[in-house]
Amino acid sequence: TMDIIETAQDKMNKTIAVLNRDLGSLRAGRANPKLLDRIMVDYYGTPTPINQMGTVSSPEPRLLVISLWDASMISAAEKAIQSDLGINPSNDGKLIRLVFPELTEERRKELVKIVRKKAEESKVAIRAIRREANETIKKDCKDGTITEDDQKRLEEKAQKATDNAIKEIDRIASEKEKELLAV
Fold first, then answer.
1. What pLDDT, on the 0 to 100 scale, is given for residue 100?
2. Which of 26, 97, 129, 133 could form a disulfide with 158 if both were Cys (CB 3.0 to 4.6 A apart)?
3. What is the dihedral of CA 133, 136, 141, 143, to 10 degrees?
């Protein structure tokens, strides 16, 4: 019966991890190597994450430099970056440079809206996980595999896990908002 709570907790953690990843790829005013995490390059027929094809560094706040191990992949990598980030990379035959423009006030506000929307979607998912757990708990009680006391105790645990997950989502979202609004 504790499995129910562990499973719910596990799903909640995954939901939070997805939110973290999604928000990590939202661009603030600075260049963050994590922005490239989801960019895939066609590497001889195999879609490969760009960060596994070379090294990425950020020598300045608004600059990313990508050094590919296979220089023949530069144009494929540039194409992937352009279609994903909408930024025109430049290269000198060895290194790809990505200069991030300053964010306008309007764009910052747009990004904050996206953060809030994603956080809200995550909370909805968390509540659905709780509901699913509670339905299983009720069913177990009805089937007589657990007592009513167990049911009450497990439902409280499910609620506690939900509260903690939602608190964590709020923390992550507000941290990202601060980052986006910082000039």
1. 81
2. 133
3. -170
CA-CA distance, 119 to 103, in Å (whole number)? 22
Q: Output DSSP code: residue 89.
A: -
pLDDT digits (tens, 9 = 90+) for 18-67: 999 888 777 666 677 877 887 889 888 889 988 889 999 988 888 899 99
pTM confidence score = 0.68
DSSP codes joined into one string, 128-174: HHHHHHHHHHHHHHHTTSS-HHHHHHHHHHHHHHHHHHHHHHHHHHH
Reported as type and span, the H/E element at residue 127 is helix 105-142
Task: Pick the closest to residue 174 from 124, 125, 115 (CA basis).
Answer: 115
- The answer to whether 124 touches 74, Cβ cutoff 8 Å, is no
Cβ(90)–Cβ(75) below 8 Å:
no
The amino acid at 30:
R
